[in-house]
Design goal:
This protein is of the alpha+beta class. It has a single domain, classed as Winged helix-like DNA-binding domain superfamily/Winged helix DNA-binding domain (Arc Repressor Mutant, subunit A), CATH 1.10.10.10. It has six helices and three strands. It has a three-stranded antiparallel sheet with strand order 1-3-2. The chain is globular, with a radius of gyration of 14 Å.
């Protein structure tokens, strides 16, 4: 996140989408919301973008755009495992965004 205001604005824009908010909600408890993966641990490594697209009922390019926006806003971290990209919440950045929003209202 470049600056505090830029980070808050990017996070708010990312959270403007119902789909992106539900992705963040699912990733809070990945074992509850996603089936087991062949590669990577749901909690330690994150959830494969393919599983997120499948659960959301959208194409891979569509979910990739949502995940990119969430990542650029600092709300998600990504990790490559073999040919797959796994996503998990960046709890430290989410906490910073929450504090910044509260401080500005």
């Amino acid at each position: 996140m470049p600056t505090n205001d830029d980070g808050v604005n990017a996070a708010l824009r990312a959270l403007a989408s119902d789909r992106r908010r539900v992705i963040l909600e699912w990733l809070r408890e990945p074992k509850r919301h996603f089936r087991p993966q062949v590669d990577g641990d749901l909690v330690a490594d994150g959830v494969c973008g393919v599983l997120i697209a499948e659960k959301l009922g959208v194409s891979q390019p569509t979910v990739s755009e949502h995940l990119k926006i969430l990542s650029q806003a600092g709300l998600l971290k990504s990790k490559r495992v073999r040919q797959w990209t796994f996503y998990k919440r960046d709890e430290a950045q989410i906490a910073k965004v929450k504090r910044a929003i509260i401080a500005n209202i």
